[in-house]
Amino acid sequence: MSASTVTVPAVGAPARDRTDRTGWWKVVPFVVIALVAVVGPFLLPYDPTRVVASASVPPGGDHWFGTDSAGLDVFSRVVAATRLNLLIAGLVTVLATLIGALVGILIGMNESRRGPLGLAARGLSRLVDLADAVPAIVLGLVVISFFGATAPTIVVCLAVILSPIQIRLIRTEVLRVRAEAYLDAARIAGVGEARLTFRHVMPNSVSAAWENTSVVFAVSIIVTAALGFVGVGMPPPTPEWGAMLSRGAPDAVAGRWWSATFPAAALALAVGAFALAASEVLRRRRR
Amino acid sequence: MPLPSRPDRRPPSGPAAYRSGTVVLLGVLPLLLVACAGSDGSGGSAGSPSSTGDVLVEAVAAVPGGLAFDSKPGGYEAFEYTLLTGATLIRNPYVQAEDDPNALTQDLYDFEGVLAESYDVSEDGLTYTFHLREGVLSQAGNPFDADDVLYSYERKWNSTSIAPAISLPAITDPATQLRKIDDHTVSWTVAEAGHGFPLLAVISKISGEIYDKELLEEHATAADPYAVEWSNTNGNFGFGPYVMTDYQDGQQISFEANPEYPLGEPAIKRIIQRVVPDAANRAQLLRAGDVDVAVQLRAADVAAMTGTEGLQTFSVDTNNFAWAFMQTRTPPFDDPLVRQAVFYAIPYEQIIEQVYGGRANPVVGLLNPEAPHHVADGLLEQEYDPQRSLGLLEQAGVPTPVPYTITVSNAVPDMEAIAVQIQSFAGDAGFDVDIEVLPPAAFQEQALTKTFQMRLYRDMSVSYESPPYSLLLAFPEDNEERNSTSWEDPRFYEAVAAGVAAGDALSPEAAVHWNRAELVWQEGRAQIQMAKVQPLMVFREGLKGFAHRTDNVIDFSIVEPGS
Amino acid sequence: MRASVTLTADKVTKFFGSRAHRHAAVSEVDLTVTDVSRIGLVGESGSGKSTLGRMLVGLEVPSEGAVYLDGQRLDVLLRFRGQRAEVRRTVQYIAQDTTSSFDPRRTLLDSVMQPLLHLFGLPRTTARARALETIESLGLPPAMAERYPRYVSGGQRQRFAIARALVVEPKILVCDEVVSALDVSVQGAILNLLKRACLERGAGLVFVSHGLPATGFVCDELAVMHRGQIVERGGSADVLTDPRHEYTRGLVRAHETRRPVGAGTAVLP
């Protein structure tokens, strides 16, 4: 028989996504915030770490967001903190996802094996469950009290503490992918196990974790802030939203709302903007 | 018909923006929590009785770490507990404060009897004989007698109590100094006449609490021969104005007036101490009328409540110092010139205005200026003078800016605020300051291991009025551990000894030596007092009887509902 | 025709499950296939036929017994890269599951090229050309090969799977339920394609299936499996018209509604 065309009609190319052009605005808020992080510190009206006025001045006039209980300018501090909070959150997200990928694949590929490798993988899985069971803030408190509160310590500490989120996701995906027939097909095609893991399993397992980065980003901003709230944040008067919230919360109770409200709003905006932008970016990637 | 192709891993559209919305909501949660914080309070439950002459509700930060002073719990709550349930032989009488019409204060140079009716002094000024009150019963119903006094001091010196350390120089060995004359008479003998006033100054304070010997002996064990541990968890082992009736760990403690109290049953019949850990919440509860008294508030909150209708704040001068201690063994504060430079690099007025809202007083010298015959010659007044600081640093030959780290405890927020002020104004004076905030345990640890450069904390000197006590408190001779600055100068100890040798600690002769000691101390500059903080407790309108005490707690036995 | 390659399963057994609760999917089975065989393994689900098929290509390791390729133990050969490649060039496999038999992140052409790149070390251009050749010979338009797997139908994917298996010119091809998941109207075309491709290339065929008529069409011999064992084997026509084992009879009866098939007859009802 000649190579005649198949009678079965082919499925056509995907229809053009109707919302293709209209979604781009979703990235704008986060881009603005990122700009603030980069450029903001050069355009501050006041030094964010120096006493510049009387304590607890209400917003208005010279101090758009007022001053806090030490006499530091709230606006300058909120803007200056953007860089630190975003940087930490960004690094933590990347690191946590990386750890998630490596550990998740390690566990997922090996946990049902016999022998020492399987044992090690299952042990590692239990360890991850343990880390996940302890609340992030408690773990963070303990670790940072030990190692001191500097930006690198906080980044590493939070990345490790939040990685179980990604590890678990990727492990689940790996378990699914392992059962897929194309792995056997690759083996039949002569692909070695290691290459198989990195060229076939990994790329097909990490997309869920990619989509989850907005959650990790949000959580890491909030946990950094929470650590500042419970007093193991960066040393004062480093501008950081959580520490500002912590110091401002008692004043808010007394009616001096501005020193806590503005950092809280900045926090909420940053988290929301990132989630919005991430949802748009990922939607495009999926097509 | 072709089979459907493999399902996409596309999540349903729609939730994308929905998810962002959820995350924004989560981020706004802190805002809402802050706004709602006012109504959240572990103590502010509905139906809390306000004082009607019968019940008084006090908002406190925590329950005491322990109920026995000898077990070293320390802290506001523990001291207040000791005062509520304990009694001493003598105490300082309360007099009207000169700087606040609504407050009383202690007359530190006079004494009145509590468990003792009266006392006499021998001719040579070495023996003080106390005539004990008769017919007094303990909270457990046991009669009070001389055996209780001797037993109490035996226990203090045979436990981990801080009493021995803070009773110097007057009491070194009660076994030989304290004697029972008969069932209702005891006598204290001191080594030199100059220890006389210091003796009275120390036994009139909470460390001089007398215990119920019969009760404690009932509960003594081989491992706990003076029932220190038992008393630490059970309380009510003394002769004080109140009896603890209920203890809910972490929640509240209830007290009832003791009709057997030697000075008469107190006017307030019931007291409820409600635990509200957050200072701002305590202030809020008081503002809302849910409690009658709130203690250990933030200075800013007290300042805001001053002049508010329905509340009373007190501005009496106190001995609640904000201190800066410098470690003299290691750079940069191993050079006295650098330490003296720091004295001029601190923005005192800023601190008083901004951190305490004006509710703090400047300090001159280490000793109480109210003491009779007090000599103030040569004592420096606080002054922020950056030029002077730079001059001293140049004289010292150190390169500027001089970097150093201030350490504070995260349990006392005004210390951090002071640190920020110091940091901001340090640059012009030739210093570059970093701030380190530690949890209380780590903060304490640093003091013991001397691994700090400068540490800030608030503290009182309970027997403030006794010059040798105040002078030696931070610089105990031959007590490496308690001398956190490691500053020692033989001229200082010589001056103190000379003052003691002068006989009467309050005499003009002694005053000359105290002044000398203060000048040596000033030159050494291992400590800087930054301010005396005015009282951080607030009463509701209608309560009378607030008195400032050197231990900075409230004496509820003199509080009355007034008009 | 003379066989040049022989694949023998010698008393192979496969246990699944933990040591306490294990279950023999395949139980002491002997089977020999060559490059001129056209043998069908039939049976219901759970009969062990798929497992046996996977053991024949080395994707499962027997718990007891061994598989031999030209007299050498398969598990030993697969341990070393050079010999592993040789094995894979000789014995190929097509899985049942069409939905996941291709990496969704690669084009169909990429997947078909993969065995050429890894088993022969061919440069990409050569591999590409050869792959396209095979694809076209199976009646697929070359443009379709540039698509991603989810954009073609199940039947088309299965053709690509066949292309991927045949591109290395194996001597023995093991197919596991390759048409079972496909629409009936498509099955016939695929089966015809398979049969012809194997004939043209001189490859032996092991056809694992639960569908009797289809298997009978494609294969000369049948081996009936039940509960892990081969209960009957023989020529297709014989087994189908005169089944001896009770189980086989039941199987045949279940397919009674269909016309008995022989070689050369189309399968479609």
TrEMBL record, chain A:
TM segment ranges: 24-44, 86-109, 136-162, 215-237, 257-278
Pfam families: BPD_transp_1 (PF00528)
Keyword set includes Lyase: no
Position of the signal peptide: none
Domain of life the protein comes from: Bacteria
Domain ABC transmembrane type-1: from-to ranges: 82-278
Mode of membrane association: Multi-pass membrane protein
Stored Gene3D superfamilies: MetI-like
Major place of residence: membrane
Annotated localization: Cell membrane
Matching PANTHER family: D,D-DIPEPTIDE TRANSPORT SYSTEM PERMEASE PROTEIN DDPC-RELATED, OLIGOPEPTIDE TRANSPORT SYSTEM PERMEASE PROTEIN APPC
Descriptive protein name: ABC transporter permease
Automatic annotation (TrEMBL), chain B:
Keyword Signal: yes
UniProt protein name: ABC transporter substrate-binding protein
Coiled coil: none
Keywords tagged on the record: Signal, Transport
Domain Solute-binding protein family: 112-473
Claim: Coiled coil is one of the keywords in the record: no
Matching InterPro entries: SBP_5, SBP_5_dom
Family statement: Belongs to the bacterial solute-binding protein 5 family.
Source organism superkingdom: Bacteria
Species: Cellulomonas avistercoris
Subcellular location: Cell envelope
TrEMBL record, chain C:
Keyword Amino-acid biosynthesis: no
Any coiled-coil regions, as ranges: none
Family: Belongs to the ABC transporter superfamily.
Start and end residues of each ABC transporter domain: 7-252
InterPro entries tied to this protein: AAA+_ATPase, ABC_transp_ATP-bind, ABC_transporter-like_ATP-bd, ABC_transporter-like_CS, P-loop_NTPase
GO MF: ATP binding
This protein's UniProt keywords: ATP-binding, Nucleotide-binding, Transport
SUPFAM superfamilies in UniProt: P-loop containing nucleoside triphosphate hydrolases
Name this polypeptide is given: ATP-binding cassette domain-containing protein
